[in-house]
C-alpha cells in the first residue's frame, strides 16, 4: 500500500513541522514521501527539498492512502481545511517529535502536531488539530478543546480547561486550577505573549500582562 503524507502549509509553521514529520516516519521505518500543500502554487515546486503543490494537484496524486497534517497557525482556517479533508475522505495526520514526553492516560485526538520538547502530563484530554510548539507543556488533568494553539514555551499547569480555538502566546503561564474549580480559558480567547494567567478568561477575550488582564473582548 502506498501512502502519501502531506504538510498543509509551506510557510514558517509548515517548514518547522516538516522535520518533525520526517522524524516520525523514520521512527516507524516508513519510507513514504512527504510533500507540502500550498494553495498559492500553480505548478509543482520544491520547498526545503520536498515536492510542493496545490490542493487540487494533491487530490490528483494516485496513491492508495493520503494523510495530512494541517500546519496553519490560524485555527479557523485549520478548521475549514479539516472539514474539506473530511469531505474528500482524507485522513488527518498526527505528528510527534522525537523528544516529546507523553505520560499516562492521555486522549489525543487526530491531527495534532507536537514539536520538540513538548510534554503532556497524565490524565489529559486534547481535541482535534492541537498545535503545541517548542518547549510547551500541558500538565495533569487538563482538558483542551479542538483547534487550540500553543506558541513556544507555554506553561499550562494542572486542572485547566482550554476551550476550542484558544490561542496561547509564547512564554505564557497559566496558573493551576483545582479539581472542583478548574481554571477556564474560554472559546476563541487569546492569551498574550508572556502573560501570567491567574484567573479564568472569558470566551473571545484577549488578555495580557502579569497578572493577565483583559485588553479586548468580543
TrEMBL record:
<dbReference type="InterPro" id="IPR041561">
    <property type="entry name" value="PglD_N"/>
</dbReference>
<comment type="similarity">
    <text>Belongs to the transferase hexapeptide repeat family.</text>
</comment>
<dbReference type="InterPro" id="IPR020019">
    <property type="entry name" value="AcTrfase_PglD-like"/>
</dbReference>
<feature type="site" description="Increases basicity of active site His">
    <location>
        <position position="141"/>
    </location>
</feature>
<feature type="domain" description="PglD N-terminal">
    <location>
        <begin position="6"/>
        <end position="85"/>
    </location>
</feature>
<protein>
    <submittedName>
        <fullName>Acetyltransferase</fullName>
    </submittedName>
</protein>
<dbReference type="InterPro" id="IPR011004">
    <property type="entry name" value="Trimer_LpxA-like_sf"/>
</dbReference>
<keyword id="KW-0808">Transferase</keyword>
<dbReference type="GO" id="GO:0016740">
    <property type="term" value="F:transferase activity"/>
</dbReference>
<feature type="active site" description="Proton acceptor">
    <location>
        <position position="140"/>
    </location>
</feature>
<dbReference type="Pfam" id="PF17836">
    <property type="entry name" value="PglD_N"/>
</dbReference>
<dbReference type="InterPro" id="IPR050179">
    <property type="entry name" value="Trans_hexapeptide_repeat"/>
</dbReference>
